Amino acid sequence: MPDNILEIRNLSTHFQSRHGLLKAVDDVSFNIEHGSTLALVGESGCGKSITGLSIMRLIPPGGRIAAGEIVFEGRDLLELDDEEMRKLRGRDIAMIFQDPMTSLNPVFTVGGQVAEAVRAHERVSRGIAWSKAVEMMERVSIPAARKRARDYPHQLSGGMRQRVMIAMALACGPKLLIADEPTTALDVTIQAEIIELLNRLKREFNLSLLLISHDMGLVAENADSVIVMYCGRMVEQASVRELFRNARHPYTEGLLRSIPRPSNREPSRRRLLTIEGSVPNPIDLPPGCAFAPRCSYAVDACRAGPIPLNRVNDDHQSRCINFERVGASCPSG
Q1: What is the per-residue pLDDT for 258?
Q2: Of 248, 213, 241, nearest to 225 (Cα)?
Q3: What is the distance between the terminal CA atoms of the chain, rounded to a whole angstrom?
Q4: Rounded distance, CA 299 to CA 325, Å?
Q5: pLDDT at site 327
Q6: Strand duo 316-318 + 233-239: pairing
Q7: What is the mean pLDDT of each run of 10 residues along the chain (333 residues)?
Q8: Number of other residues whose CB lies within 10 A of the CB of residue 204
Q9: How far from the centroid of its chain's Cα atoms is residue 90's Cα?
Q10: Could you give phi then psi for residue 166, rounded to 5 degrees?
Q11: How would you label 5-17 residue by residue, b for 16+ Cβ within 10 Å and e otherwise?
Q12: Residue 274's pLDDT is what?
């Protein structure tokens, strides 16, 4: 039996709007093994970030966890009271958010904010907390960390702000790190540095990692297993090697085909492959498979009712009744 640090069972998170009920996360189940990296991938709005926020119990106003279990090291987090959950956040489970500029408080120094994260979970003096903040900023490769700790967020580059967020997340030695689009809005060189940093810290701190991303290339190089989400539901789950070599859902196939590839053709003659159609209204999803209106494999049965997750093999599931007809291969490199 795998040694799981986190088990998500039939998780559903809903938002009530004036237009109707939005099922942002709909009956999602997965496990994360100790020391492994699981990636959640899909288009914006598919439910990836809300899944991460649900684990942290930080649902935005108007939303609620409607069903399911979130079991961390044998404890269902949904049974904890607010105070118990507050103590667990940062100490056992930490999260890096998409935009460090909006996540950091603009009126406090970055070192002070890291130190405050330390004092929230450890009974130490301000001086000791400050020293630990500087130490963590050094560990995430911020140059002249003692000096930069006295800077305000706006004085740092996007890459440096993201390093501060990582230092804050790891300051109390969590066991599970949720990284929500950790390279968003960073240039390619800085993206690579941040991912390399996360991988190094994962080894040093013996972390388990939930990586939320829309970047299939990043996922291919850094995840152990992958879950593809569409309209709040899991549509495919496999090891990263299996998924990129043997994708068995039309949506995953479309994602893989849309990855830009090197070509000898002139740039003006290259055609970027896209998934035809658009994502349906999440409040008024079509019956059956939500991807059917965009799918070239769709048949009448796809629109007749809910589609279960079908077993492709021991390491692979697909929410497609025609999964045997679907085939995609991993982009080279």
Answers
A1: 82
A2: 241
A3: 33
A4: 12
A5: 75
A6: antiparallel
A7: 88 94 97 97 94 97 96 97 94 90 91 96 95 97 97 95 95 95 86 93 95 93 97 97 96 88 56 82 93 94 94 95 76 43
A8: 10
A9: 17
A10: -65, -40
A11: bbbbeebbbbbee
A12: 81
Distance, CA of 166 to CA of 170 (rounded, Å)? 6
Rounded Cα–Cα distance for residues 202 and 60 (Å): 28
Q: Which residue has the tokens 């025609």?
A: 322
Q: Which of 86, 116, 109, 97 is nearest to 165 (CA)?
A: 97
Report the b/e string of 80-103 with b at 16+ CB within 10 A. beeeebeebbbbbbbbbbbebeeb
pLDDT at 101: 78
Nearest to 137 by CA among 158, 113, 108: 113
- Residue corresponding to tokens 């290339």: 217
| Integer angstrom CA distances of residue 201 from 33, 94, 96, 183, 278 | 17, 13, 13, 16, 38
Note the pTM of the prediction, 2 decimals. Answer: 0.92
Query: 110-119 and 158-170 helices cross at what angle (nearest 10)?
Result: 10
Nearest by Cα to 283 from 215, 232, 245, 328 = 232
Ramachandran angles phi, psi of 155, nearest 5°: -85, -5
Element (H, E) at 168: helix 158-170
165: tokens are 């967020």
* Identity at 21, one-letter amino acid code: L
Spatial contact of 95 and 177, defined as CB atoms under 8 Å apart: yes
For tokens 């020391």, what's the residue? Answer: 35
Specify the 3-state DSSP secondary structure of 38. Answer: strand
- Pull the structure tokens for residue 321: 């009744």
Q: Are 96 and 182 in contact (CB under 8 A)?
A: yes
Q: What CA–CA distance (Å, rounded) separates 224 from 164?
A: 26
AA letter at 171: A
Tell me how far apart the alpha carbons of residues 216 and 227 are, in angstroms, rounded to a whole number.
11
Rg (CA), the chain: 21
Taking the C-alpha atoms of 317, 320, 322 and 327 in order, what is their torsion angle to the nearest 10 degrees?
-60
Tokens 């939320």 belong to 212
Predicted pLDDT of residue 273? 73
pLDDT at 330: 44
Query: What beta strand segments (E) does 18-52 contain?
Result: 20-33, 37-41
Tokens of 134: 């500087």
